[in-house]
Design a protein that fits this description.
Layout lengths: L38 H12 L5 E2 L6 E8 L2 H13 L5 E4 L16 H9 L3 E4 L12 H18 L7 E3 L7 H10 L2 E3 L9 E2 L7 E2 L7 H13 L3 E6 L13 H13 L3 E2 L2 H8 L3
Parallel strand pairs: 2-3, 2-9, 2-10, 3-4, 5-6, 8-9
Antiparallel strand pairs: 1-7
Helix pairs in contact: 2-7, 4-5, 6-7
Length: about 280
């Protein structure tokens, strides 16, 4: 699924998407619609995936890895942040403000105090909508209002928060909303797997799911070798961090394997905002 400009010079093993992963199979919006099963939705998502609004050459002088957490569960704060900090690095936490402090069958979502704490400890707080609706199911006005609510809620917790990055709920985009996001957010992360190298689509940044049910350690090692060989940017995404994670999360063992593998290869581990600085995205 990589663009030809980002094709790897040598074949690399890819993680196999778990069938229970958020990026595989249909997701449901608040109205219960099977959003990705509709032909129009698939086509719109394919256009967003294939057609860049902006294209930026990666100018980083060293390979980069970023760790990102979506939604984010309390364990991503309580466990994940500590694992990052033990290695002297920080991550990016994509925050759906309408879910803060909530409880669902999978996990307890971190509350407002966790957002404030993570920011104080040097982690990046990113946008993830207020409602957690798939963006292409919203009109232009609905999406702008939803993102404004997300931003306003975060700025009430962290006054002066600026230059935010965004992650697409469910990983699903639409070309019109992608164009809109290019003016509303500094950059946006997708769930399209792969290493970012050569030319970057800053409004649809590739990412690899760091999940025990879908990423083996050998595949992880090959991805780290690839980001070094291509002097690229590898973005990991996950949700909960627990010894027995959900099908959307990672164990501390897997997360440590990713951290230690990156450090062993002397790869820079940066929040997305700092990676974008290195790459040259304004």
């Amino acid at each position: 699924m990589s663009d030809s400009g980002n094709a790897s010079p040598t074949p690399m093993a890819r993680p196999v998407a778990c069938q229970c992963s958020p990026s595989a199979g249909p997701a449901a919006n608040s109205n219960g619609d099977a959003i990705i099963d509709r032909f129009g939705a698939r086509l719109d998502h394919a256009l967003a995936k294939r057609l860049p609004v902006r294209s930026v050459p990666l100018r980083n002088e060293r390979p980069i890895v970023s760790f990102t957490f979506d939604d984010f569960p309390a364990s991503a704060h309580e466990v994940g942040a500590g694992l990052l900090e033990a290695c002297g690095v920080r991550g990016t936490y994509f925050t759906c403000t309408g879910l803060l402090g909530g409880i669902n069958p999978l996990w307890t979502v971190a509350g407002p105090d966790a957002v404030i704490d993570l920011h104080a400890r040097g982690h990046e707080i990113g946008l993830h909508t207020h409602s957690h609706r798939a963006v292409f199911n919203m009109t232009r006005g609905e999406f702008e209002a939803d993102l404004a609510a997300n931003r306003a809620a975060l700025r009430r917790l962290i006054p002066g928060l600026t230059r935010e990055t965004f992650a697409y709920p469910y990983g699903f985009a639409g070309y019109a909303r992608k164009r809109q996001l290019s003016r509303l957010a500094r950059a946006s992360r997708s769930v399209l797997p792969g290493v970012n190298a050569g030319q970057l689509d800053p409004d649809f940044i590739k990412a690899v799911e760091l999940i025990d049910c879908g990423l083996t350690v050998p595949a992880l090692e090959q991805l780290l070798d690839e980001v070094v060989a291509r002097q690229g940017w590898l973005v990991f995404l996950t949700h909960d961090i627990a010894p027995e994670p959900t099908k959307f999360g990672a164990s501390p063992k897997l997360m440590n394997a990713a951290l230690e593998g990156a450090l062993r290869r002397q790869v820079d581990i940066l929040p997305m905002r700092e990676a974008l600085d290195r790459i040259g995205v304004a």
